[in-house]
Write a structure and sequence with these properties.
This protein is 73% helix and 0% strand. The protein has 6 helices and no strands.
Length: 158
């Protein structure tokens, strides 16, 4: 019991400090990018990015649209804050998200397509150390944009 107590105490008093232990911990938590990650993982990360972006930005888009569509001769709102306040007073906080579902789904799909296209092409150009040249990054970015246009923007917005 005495020797096992000292080994246990040593582990508590001296936490591992090596960089490999740190990166190993990040990998286990899913926070460190795995160089061999596949397109499914990239697609999911892109989808979540688009989802979060749309959730954060939609209320300002909603208010902007309400201001643009109001009557010019008899406006309902005096400005951005007035529109936001009146919307929340009338429909609750979720009133700022009225009609958000198509935009949220579309933004999620666009980001997923873009990042999957980018990462798939970029993986083909990485050297042994995982580095990517600037021209390869630019070409990968262009391919990501084309992927987004073909698989997300065109089907959704036409």
């Amino acid at each position: 019991v005495g020797s096992s107590d000292s080994r246990f105490r040593a582990r508590i008093e001296q936490p591992p400090t090596t960089a490999s232990h740190f990166t190993s911990s990040l990998s286990k938590m899913g926070l460190k990018s795995d160089p061999s990650e596949g397109p499914v993982r990239t697609f999911v990360k892109g989808f979540l990015t688009g989802f979060i972006e749309a959730i954060i930005c939609y209320p300002t888009e909603f208010v902007k649209t309400q201001l643009q569509l109001q009557s010019k001769s008899n406006p309902e709102y005096t400005g951005i804050l007035d529109c936001g306040r009146k919307t929340v007073a009338k429909n609750g906080f979720m009133g700022l998200y009225s009609g958000a579902a198509p935009l949220i789904i579309g933004s999620s799909g666009k980001q997923a397509a873009r990042w999957t296209g980018y990462q798939t092409v970029a993986n083909q150009f990485k050297d042994d150390k995982g580095n990517l040249s600037i021209p390869a990054r630019m070409f990968s970015g262009a391919c990501g944009g084309v992927t987004e246009a073909v698989f997300a923007v065109t089907p959704i917005e036409t």
